[in-house]
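Progress report, Aim 2. The chain analyzed during this reporting quarter is listed below.
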Amino acid sequence: MGGVVSLLPNACMGRDKKILHDLKLTLPPERVTSLLSLEHLNVNVPAWNSELEIFWMKGLGFAKDTRADDVCSKVRAKGGSLQGLVWANAGLQQVHMPIGEPPPMESQTIPGFVGLAYSDIVGLRSNLKALSIDFSLVSSQETVAMKDLGPPAMKVKSPTGVNFIIHGIRTSSWVTPSGWMNTKDLEEQQVSLPSQVPSVCLGIPYMRFLCPHGKAAAVARFYDCIFCTKAEVRKAANAEECWVPVGASQWIIYREAQAGDHIPYDGYHIAIYINNFVDTYRRAKERQLVWNNPRFPNTTYDTEDMAISHTEFRILKLVDPQSGEFICELEHEIRAASHPAFCAKQWIGPKPLGELGDHQGK
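Predicted structure tokens for the chain:
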């Protein structure tokens, strides 16, 4: 169900001669992308309570990542504002939920939804009913059709307003940079995320956001220019969509809003892993797109060497490279394949740079 993984290392090199090793994938010819993994969505929550615990862990069957408390402590020690942190694992993907951020960022949601995959839809539906968690049918405008996934089965909303579209998948597999792969095989290869119990949710195959009316093609040009990734502009019900390929099986989708509609943005972010990290940083820096998030004063990316040291950088604004016009805001936390938190680091020959530390996973 996935592409072929080659263990032969590829690499890019910074000015200080530090090598960042890439993950070499053999992808279908129609998927031209440097994006390896859409790893997490970050949405702040005002507090962690029993309602959130029941929804995320018992209802949707996510699993708490055991690294979150340590990362939170290190960020706070460096002057970060978060008061707590929960990482909820879904296969090899996550939702990060910082706790106790100051207004107006104490609670975040997205104008769109996140796709989730499960092998037992009937069991999930029964579990949600038993926990009195509401779910509903999926409208035609919210329907996403994707290879390897069943049709949308239902929609669920978190207590803080994040929408999820639930899909069935026929086998117990996780979505990886190389596609959907058997969970047991991945665990034997040590391709997994740490948690005390396995997640029932098998992964996040896509996230769908909104972009301004008439801007799907501009979003595609942005990813082509910055990431050398060929996105598809597709006709959908009453709107165009930009589909950005990630690895062998994931997508970042932008659906055009109705003309004149305002698209809210409250600071949520996504995290992606990429090949060709240094060249990507240089293209973003040349266009003045590299951004330091003031919430994390311990990680800034003003120079190439600083980005290489953290094995990550951030952008906030999407800009049309053809016209220079602003499109929309969506913070991207952009990580090298050599980042120590990469789920598939076992597929990269040399040991990844650095240790799990205060720069990751915010």
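Confidence is low (pLDDT under 50) at residues 1-9, 352-362. The domain at 4-347 is CATH 3.10.180.10 (2,3-Dihydroxybiphenyl 1,2-Dioxygenase; domain 1). These observations will guide the mutagenesis work planned for the next reporting period.
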